[in-house]
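User: two proteins, same treatment. go.

Assistant:
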Amino acid sequence: MRCSSYSGMEEKLTKRINDRKQIATKRFKRVLVGEEEETTYALFVENHITTVNDLYDDVWLEIFEFLYINDIFNSFWNINNNLNRIIVDRRLKLYANLIRDESLDYFNLTILPNIHSQQLISLKLTNCFEKQMNFNQYINLQSLTLNSINTMQLKLLLIAKHLTHLKYFQINAIGIFGQDNREIIEQILKIKTLKTCRFNFGLQKMGLRNETISAISSNIENFIIESEFVSNSLFKLIPHLPKLQYLNIYLREDYRYRSSITFNSLLNLKTLRLKISRLSFNHLKLLFDSVCSNLQILVLNGCIVNDLQYLLPQSWINIFKSSIKLKQFKINLKYHAGNSLTIQQINEISTNFQHHQQKIRIQHQHLPNGCSDFDLIGEY
């Protein structure tokens, strides 16, 4: 990650300058002779000022690792021929943040003609297809963030198969028409080098209507979906993610999507961060049956409506029994019961949790409209 405060860069630069001064001082001491040694050395220390021209190439390469290529060109390009030579050194890996339109124009007109496209390993872009970005030339690209890209543009990019070295892929998409994103998912799963994938489709719900995904075994280890994803569709994905270690997902149930369930498929999953919305406890239990073999960290939050299984202590006891390796747990769920529960039922629920479920506390709230809410809270 690039440094915004440059504190790390300053610390490293100061250390390198001091090291250089010590080397120069030792060399100077070795050539001093006679009675004027102390006076001459004092004058040397007083008058010797380190400038940018005194820094070795590897120092500059380390400094530039903290900066985006936009900042490097704005601050250092054409200061002198030596710095220009270092900036285009193939050893220097470049990171480009082109979120603003003017940044992309500057990149295409000023930066790109002067660098080797193979140097670029990270790109952040907005509306990239409107500017006709040629991804084919970035053969060493390892990280790509795309903002404001629509479904058709994303499909064209993935089908072209230019992203052969990609390790990190973040998609903030717009204009998702329909919820069958099977082709997009399949193409992403086919990127063999990909380790981390992050989706955000805004307010659109994401799902897979087609019953089957091609026989693909992905190398993805970290999967983050920030927009709503249909729980049935997740069960389709699970068999294709055997190396998954971290899952952060926003799940919602939708009975228009159908899927078979595969159990104990995510044997490497260590961390699950789950946000749920209108997800039945049955689907939550099915998910845990698929992921809990080696799960160590669980974070669960969201809202539920009218599924009384969430309010039964035994339901949670069964989940914890299947999570024998769980080391860290945090839950914060809001349950909207409406006016479907009597005072006696509410008291029974509270009493049962106090007696049978130590890991989760339950708090009841009477709303002004006569409805009831429950907060399920727990952490260890």
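Protein 2:
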Amino acid sequence: MVMIRAERHLNMPPPAYHPESQSITVAVHFGGEHRNLPVANCIGGKVMKFDYMNALHMNKNNLDLFAEKCGISGEGLRYYIIKNGGFKLLLNDEDILEQVLEQLEKREFTVYIEFDPPKPQEVAVESDRVGKNATEKKKNKVKKKEGNGKDKWDDELYENFVDDVSAEMDSADETNSESSGDVVVSDNDMDEHRLSEDDDNEPNFPVFNPVEMYNPSLELGMIFCSKKEFKKAVQSYAIKQKRSVKFTKNDSFRVYAVCSGDGCKWKIHANKLKNEETFQINLYQDEHTCPQVFNVKCENKLAK
């Protein structure tokens, strides 16, 4: 027997389960914004509680059913718990069962649901050009919802938790020369992904969708409508991945960033397309070899 807690009783403690029973209450948080800084927490959203769950039978199917009861369905569902001050992704049935049993004594297990937003309806625009026509395709592809807070990027996330993310990034490096801290790239580094000159003729490069700014997916060849949008996506990526990054080049034509972790090879380069305002990722080493950090910083290396 599973009971859905009435909304008026959400703040009440779990039922008085028999000491020898395996029953537990599952509290499901959904629809809020998950933040990792300064400590993991969920801002806004809703909560539903399910009483009299058998802890020994908890698995992903149960969590999927809870998500459906919360009005969430489809692909891309991810379940997290807060552990040791950060969000921990529940990987599989064994992991779920282990984490539930750890909370059995407390008789309440709290889980957070994260899910991908519905994809916007695409309007195909035929184009043989990469620059301006790719930007026009993007404008037709993404329809921004005015007045909807969920579709707007929360700038407070940067102001409160990210160091050195300010207007100085747009101007401080304008005078940087090639010797002022550029990333030196070896032609023998086979781990890097770089656009070849032949790739410049490809008309089907991916275009960044600003709706995904909260959890961006970066890839080689991706096009951004401006330098500001590219930098913001990198900063968002850093926060989501809990890795500090440093902008080593930041002028009117190039934006380079590297991971601040000791010995980490992660790096990304974007260049301005000719005669356009758009920027394109032309080099991307996407694998981190450093641990995650809680004090995320996005630094701009100033010219000496």
